[in-house]
Amino acid sequence: MPPERRARLALVVLTVLVLAAVAAFMTLGVRGNWDFVLKFRGMKLAGLVLVAHAVAISTVLFQTVTANRILTPSIMGFDALYVLTSTVLVAVLGSAALAQQDARLLFAAKVALMVGCSMALYRWLFLGEERSLHRLLLIGVVFGIFLRTLAEFVQRLLDPNEFMVLSDMLFASFGTIEPVLMGIGWGLTALVTLWVARNARRLDVIGLGRPIAVNLGIRWRREVLMVLAMVSVLVSVSTALVGPVTFFGLLAVSLAHLAVGTSRHAVLLPAASLVAILLLVAGQTVLERAFAFNTALGIVIEFFGGVVFILLLLAGGRR
Could you tell me which residue, 172 or 288, shows the higher pLDDT? Predict the structure, then answer.
C-alpha cells in the first residue's frame, strides 16, 4: 500500500475509533437525568481530550527537536520540576491557604513557573553543542533525581496533614480535572495548536537535523527555541491539570508512528493526538464501567508506556 494512502486510512480508522470511544464514554451505564449525565461526562471528556492532545503534540515536537523517538519532556525531568513546584507551594503557603486561593491564579502561576524553568533547561541542553543520546538521557536523569531529592527534603519538613494533601496533588489523576481550569488550558493549547499547524512543513525540515536544516535556510536557534517554548506550554498545561505522566506521550507517539508509517508532521501530529485521545477516553470508559474505579488509569498507562520505553531502548542498542 502506498505510504500516503496508508496514512490517510490510518487517520480515518483512528477517527472512527475515537468517535466510538467518545460515544461509549458518554452513553454507557446512563441512568436517570440525561441532561445532568451528559453535562457531567461532557466536562470530564473535555478534560481528557485536552490532556491527551497536549501530551501527544508536546511529545512529537520534543522528539522533532531532539531528533530522537525515545526522549520526552517527562523523561528529561519535567515531572520532577512539577513535584518540586507543588512541594514548595505547599511548604510556603500551606494547604489551607492554597485551598482558599483562586484555582485559576494558582494554575497560571504553576504554568508560568514551569515554562520559565523548562525553557532555561532546554536552552542549555539543545541550543549549544551537539550532544549524544546517552549524554542527554544522563543529564535528564541526573536533573530529575536532583529535583526529586530537593523536593523530598522539603517534604520531610512538612506537617503530616500537609504531606497528605501534597500526595493527592502529585498523584496523576485523569478523572478529577477541575472544570474551572479547562478554559485557560484550552485557550493556551489552541494557540499552540494553531502555531504548529501553520509551521508543519518547517517542523519537517527541523526534524532532518541541525546541519541539513541550516543548509535549507532554517534559523536554527530561533526556530528550536520557539518549538521548545510551545513544548513547555503544552507540558505545563497537562502536568498542572492531572499531575506528572512520564511515559504516556511516548506510548501514544510510538503507536502513532506504527499506525501512519511516516514522520510528516501534517500526518503524525493528528495521528498522535487521536491515539492519545483514544487511549485516555477508552481507558477511562473501561475503568469506570468494567472495573468500577478499582484501579487507576494513570498506573496502567504508565506501565505500558514504560514497557514501550524499554523496548525502544533495547531496539536502539541493537542498532
Answer: 288
Dihedrals phi, psi of 172, to nearest 5 degrees: -65, 120
The answer to whether the CB of 225 falls within 8 A of the CB of 207 is no
**Predicted model pTM:** 0.82
Please give the helix or strand (H or E) that residue 70 lies within, else none.
none
Q: C-alpha angle with apex 108: 141 to 42, nearest 5 degrees?
A: 95
- Report d(CA 158, CA 169) in Å as an integer: 14
Q: Counting Cβ atoms within 10 Å, is residue 59 exposed (0-12), middle (13-18) or buried (19+)?
A: buried
DSSP character for 246?
Answer: S
User: What does the alpha-carbon distance between residue 181 and residue 105 come to, in Å, rounded to a whole number?
Assistant: 9
- Cα(1)–Cα(273) distance, integer angstroms: 24
Helical H runs in 67-132? 78-93, 95-100, 103-126
Q: Please give the share of the chain, as a percent, with pLDDT higher than 70.
A: 78
Could you tell me the domains of the chain?
A: 3-318 (1.10.3470.10)
CB-based burial of residue 156 (10 Å sphere; 0-12 exposed, 13-18 middle, 19+ buried)? exposed
Report whether 143 contacts 76 (CB < 8 A): yes
Helices 34-66 and 265-289, packing angle to 10 deg: 140
